[in-house]
Amino acid sequence: MKKNKIQVxxxxxxxxxxxxxxxxxxxxxxxxxxxFSTKDMQLxxxxxxxxxxxxxxxxxxxxxxxxxSLIAFKEVLGFKESQNDYSxxxxxxxxxxYQFGRTTLEMIGIYDTNLFLNTxxxxxxxxxxxxxxxxxxxxxxxxxxxGKRINGSVITESxxxxxxxxxxxxxxxxxxxxxxxxxxxDAFGTSIKYYMKRFSGFDTSSxxxxxxxxxxxxxxxxx
Length: 223
What we know:
With 223 residues, this protein is mainly alpha-helical. The chain has helices spanning 2-23, 70-82, 102-107, 113-117, 120-137, 139-145, 157-167, 169-177, 192-198; strands at residues 149-150, 153-154. Strands 1-2 form a two-stranded antiparallel sheet. α5 (120-137) packs across α7, α7 (157-167) crosses α8 and α7 packs antiparallel against α9 (192-198). The longest helix has 22 residues, at 2-23. The protein is elongated, with a radius of gyration of 42 Å. Mean pLDDT is 82; it is low at 56-63.
């Protein structure tokens, strides 16, 4: 019996000791702050100071300046016609980047419209061939009217050729020879007058008039 009392007493003492240890506060450390100083130290070395930042020169993105060149002429016209989309077919059935009609394509030797739509190189060749043909048809009118003013716009060769692409050379002849009275607009309301002004002043002098141009994938494309 006495032995059991001793065991109970020891157990009680052990429990008390554990409780005291668990609630004992962590030891406090006293630090002498006088030993540390920031005197003469540059404390902002890792901060962003815009006045001291090195100037980094960015390379300019190269953008070709096509100016009023022949390439600029065809690219601006292509964007106006289709936003330069080679696969576009509009609601009236006009095809490709330059919105050719099937009859016009056949006149320059293109009969396979699926091949035409899927071959950008053929479309570019078709554009130049048709422009050569229009320039041959309108050669006398170009000589006669370039430099004159019709409906408030100075007539230029590139304006005439662009208008011929829109309306056909026959309608351009009527417009010029009537001094703008015999006007023409396409099904979407775009007029010869607008094309004459929008495409004025491009250098189309390298386009050689050609009465019967023919296009094939084997033919040369020079521009």
